[in-house]
Specification:
Layout lengths: L2 H11 L6 H22 L6 H11 L3
């Protein structure tokens, strides 16, 4: 499915009264998810152990 078709399908599922800003955020979110999957397919993912370490450093407390 093309990126254009993905965007069209997404927009058709969104509420009629959604703002353009919120629509753009939804498209950006889906684009980010798709880019993440593309990175994984290229072997560019981060091992879960590294993710846990990163997340632990983000916690304030």
């Amino acid at each position: 499915m093309s990126n254009r078709q993905i965007a069209i399908d997404l927009l058709e599922k969104l509420p009629e009264d959604m703002s353009l800003t919120d629509m753009a955020r939804e498209i950006e979110f889906v684009a980010g998810i798709r880019e993440g999957f593309d990175q994984l397919e290229r072997g560019e993912g981060i091992p879960i152990e590294n993710v846990r370490e990163l997340m632990a450093s983000w916690i304030v407390g």
